[in-house]
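Morning. Coffee machine broken again, so started the prediction first thing and wrote up yesterday's gels while waiting. Chain of 119 residues, entered below exactly as on the submission form.
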Amino acid sequence: QVQLVESGGGSVQAGGSLRLSCAASGNVFRINGVGWYRQAPGKQRELVAGITSDGSTNYADSVKGRFIISRDNAKNTVYLQMNSLKPEDTAVYYCNAAIATIIGTLPYWGQGTQVTVSS
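Came back before lunch.
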């Protein structure tokens, strides 16, 4: 059994920072690629940032220069450092990870963490 849990969300004023964590636990051999997504009310879920198993990263244009995705393989955890937050960053943030387990590599979603940015 594998669990993927996000944490670190909260409420912050515009210009502030938050760091989200996405931690995998259970029968995890390895975490491969991971993506951070977000979904605002009434909008589709969108990819915010991604990181491959070798550490290559990519970002949505809307967050480039403000968000940083990183990983700690020893802790089976991926982070999203969010700086210079804007009200339009308000959303539920989810992580999605391709996790290698004894039965193969499967995609997992976390339950989401709310980020609210006030002006």
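The first strand starts at residue 2 and ends at 7. Going to sketch it on the whiteboard this afternoon.
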